[in-house]
Design a protein that fits this description.
The complex is a heterodimer of chains A (about 425) and B (about 190). Chain A is mostly beta strands and about 425 residues long. Chain A has three helices and 32 strands. Chain A has a six-stranded antiparallel beta sheet with strand order 1-2-31-30-29-28, with no helix packed on it. In chain A, a hairpin with a 2-residue loop joins strand 29 and strand 30. Chain B is built from five helices and five strands, in the order H-E-H-E-H-E-H-E-H-E. The relative contact order of chain B is 0.17. The chains are: A mainly beta (about 425), B alpha+beta (about 190).
Chain lengths: ~425, ~190
């Protein structure tokens, strides 16, 4: 079991403020794959007299190890420490059984860092890829995550999702008063920043597809209202404040519409708001609860939770309305669906018939219709796919405290993420940065 | 809406006058642990809210136009022997069915509202922590609606009864197991202007 504990390093990338009580996430791999690939990441060269502002290779190592798919070889075992292609002796790395080798070199030129790096297949003795990136002091850490993304793609064939962010709601206590906070951090838990703090509940954060805006529900006016807020500037507006529920906002894949839940017409139903005109279209009309909409990646269909059949199950409906079709039949409770980025899977909160009432994360294979339970908690909720579809981040409980966890979509790798104090809940993985 | 805001502001003043020492106006927000009507207070909703990128929050509320004639005397509401002193209805799991044991209590509230048309209540709907958050908001609202329908049937008027669902966000008891969950599946009747 590996525990990667991160120090409180804060790089202010945007204008939003860092709250005093927010601490970085800790990430712990609770279950990895048996066949983790041994890789060697050599500390990157640094040809300047000044102190390097960030150990780029260490960030890349932590990113790759966190996936549970790779095992970084201890650098004290290294027989050589190449920083350029010509210095690589593949024999040194074959002796260590390294499957892959990553080397790099950083040069500084008037506050711009140029990072050159290469990925090798050790057994074939062949370069797989190599890039040069330019970064400044402020985005050096992000550049390291971009390197992780490139290395991950070179080794797995799938794009990495390290240079992304997560939003979540954290609840702390200050002088016996609850403080709700909508936080955004890097995907590795660093750099947590607060978009909103309030003594009243904050719920259901949702990223716009370009990652520039966040929609959420806040009770700060003593009523649930839906706000949209620019992440970089904090500028925001109320977009829904009808009597009754205003909830569960989710952006359409093209960013032009927002699905939401309103009970103004008697009971909770799914509506779609056109963002340009602010016009509402009502999609569902039953007398049951209809809530928790999510868009299919093609933008033509939505899945949602409804208890029209007696208990909560997941249904889908065309964006043009009409008849809805039930999707889940297994288990007595299936709710809060989220599509994987390619639409292949639908993640949800699931209570099985023989699970003792435990709420767990399950994925429905949309092609063959099989449901697979991925987690083992009692109160797991709020699944959210990484933008590359490889992981699902979700909320769970540990000793009565809300913490975040992640599981690979194939169920093989499990991670736990937690901040040191308070409750953490409702994680949402950002889209890829444009 | 304006009327409602005035009533809420009126409630603030009443509380401030009647229970000044126990109502904090520090910008930390309302004490959520004790929601007994006698200490129910509404402060400016944006107090204590801070928004990233803007600064440390919006301070101060619009407090103009508060009448000073706000003190009602409803001794019956405070009488522990009156059914009106009971203001919480508990529910079974995933249910909005009101148990028979609450019938006389809700009837008493309904009669009181019918007799005092200037009095308003907020029905807060709550659920336990199990299940998804937005579904629980819907369930909390459905519970509040059950109580509202009962109140209206017995003579309260629509304008007197407001509903807010908090779902699982404001548990009465923090903890796991039915002994906690049962305490959290509830509707609270809160008198807002008295």
């Amino acid at each position: 079991m590996k525990l990667l504990k991160f120090a409180a390093l804060c790089i202010v990338l945007s204008v939003v403020s860092t709250t005093s009580w927010s601490k970085p996430l800790e990430i712990e791999i609770t279950k990895g794959v048996d066949t983790a690939l041994p890789i060697a990441i050599v500390p990157f060269g640094w040809n300047s007299a000044t102190v390097i502002p960030l150990d780029v290779a260490a960030v890349v190592t932590a990113d790759l190890q966190r996936t549970g798919l790779f095992e970084a070889i201890d650098d004290s075992d290294f027989l050589s420490a190449p920083t350029a292609i010509d210095d690589v002796e593949f024999r040194d790395w074959r002796l260590l059984n390294a499957s892959n080798l990553i080397i790099g070199d950083i040069t500084e030129d008037s506050d711009v860092y140029v990072i050159e790096f290469y990925v090798f297949d050790v057994f074939k003795g062949k370069k797989l890829t190599g890039y040069a990136l330019r970064a400044n002091k402020q985005n050096l850490r992000n550049a390291a995550h971009q390197i992780s993304d490139i290395v991950y793609e070179a080794l797995t064939g799938q794009p990495g999702a390290f240079a992304t962010r997560i939003a979540y709601v954290s609840v702390g206590e200050k002088a016996n008063k609850k403080r709700y906070s909508l936080q955004v951090s890097d995907a590795d838990g660093f750099n947590p920043q607060s978009l909103l703090t309030s003594p009243e509940p904050i719920l259901s954060p949702s990223w716009s597809p370009d990652g520039n805006q966040m929609a959420y529900v806040s009770y700060e006016e003593r009523r649930p209202r839906i706000y949209i807020q620019e992440v970089a500037t904090g500028k925001r507006e109320v977009i829904s404040s009808f009597p009754g529920l205003n909830g569960a906002p989710v952006w359409s894949p093209d960013g032009k519409k927002l699905a939401l839940v309103l009970s103004k017409d008697g009971n909770p139903d799914i509506y779609v708001m056109d963002m340009a005109s602010r016009e509402l279209t009502r999609l569902t009309t039953s007398t049951a609860i209809e809530t928790e909409p999510t868009w299919a990646p093609n933008g033509k269909m939505l899945a949602f939770t409804s208890d029209r059949g007696g208990n909560p199950q997941i249904y889908r409906i065309s964006v043009n309305g009409g008849r809805s079709e039930r999707l889940t039949f297994e288990g007595k409770y299936n709710a809060r669906p989220r599509f994987s980025p390619n639409g292949e899977f639908l993640a949800m909160v699931h209570v099985g018939n023989n699970s003792g009432g435990a709420y767990r994360i399950a994925v429905l294979d949309m092609d063959i219709g099989t449901l697979r339970v991925l987690t083992e908690g009692q109160l797991d909720e709020s699944p959210s796919f990484s933008p590359n579809g490889s992981m699902i981040i979700y909320a769970t409980e540990q000793q009565g405290r809300g913490v975040l966890a992640a599981v690979s979509t194939d169920g093989r790798v499990h991670q736990r993420l937690s901040i040191e104090d308070g409750d953490t809940r409702e994680p949402v993985w950002s889209p890829f940065k444009n | 809406m304006i009327t409602m805001i005035n009533r809420l502001l009126l409630a603030v003043l009443v509380i401030a006058m009647a229970a000044c020492s126990s109502t904090k106006q520090t910008g930390e927000g309302v004490d959520i642990e004790d929601r007994q009507p006698a200490e129910f207070s509404i402060e400016d909703g944006e107090d204590g809210v801070s928004i990233g990128g803007i600064g440390d929050g919006v301070s101060g509320g619009e407090t103009n136009g508060i009448g000073s004639d706000g003190s009602y005397s409803f001794t019956e509401l405070d009488d522990p022997d009156s059914p009106l002193s009971e203001r919480i209805i508990y529910f079974a799991s995933d249910s909005n069915v009101i148990g028979n044991e609450y019938t006389s209590m809700i009837e008493a509230h309904s009669r009181f509202l019918a007799d005092n048309p200037e009095v308003n209540v907020v029905l807060e709907g709550h659920t336990d922590e199990r299940g998804t958050r937005e579904y629980n908001l819907a369930l909390g609202e459905r519970r509040a609606k059950s109580v509202r329908d009962f109140l209206l049937l017995q003579g309260a008027s629509v304008s007197q009864v407001e509903m807010i669902s908090y779902g699982e966000e404001r548990p009465a008891q923090s903890g796991q197991g039915e002994s906690f969950w049962g305490q959290n599946r509830r509707v609270e009747i809160l008198y807002t202007n008295r």
